[in-house]
Amino acid sequence: MTAQWAYIKDLPSLEGKEVIVKGWLYNMRSSGKIHFLQLRDGTGTVQGVMVKKEVSEESFMTAKGLWLEASLEVTGSVRKDERAPSGVELSVSGISVIQNPSDEYPIGKKDHGIDFLLDNRHLWLRSSRQQAIMRIRERVIWSAREFLHNDGYLLVDSPIISGAAGEGVSGLFEIDYFDSKAYLAQTGQLYAEAAAAAFGKVYCFGPTFRAEKSKTRRHLTEFWMLEPEVAFYDHKDNMDLQEKLICAIVTGVLEHCRPELESLERDISKLENIKAPFYHLQYGEAIEMLHKLGSDTPYGDDLGNDDETILTQQFDRPVFIECYPKSVKAFYMKEHPEDQDLVLCDDLLAPEGYGEIIGGSQREDSYDRLLSRIREQGLPEEPYDWYLDLRRYGTFVHSGFGMGIERVVAWICGLQHIREAIPWPRTIYRLKP
Ligand code: 4AD
Ligand code: MG
Question: Which residue, among 194, 197, 225, 196, has the nearest Cα to 209 in the 3D structure?
Answer without folding.
Answer: 225
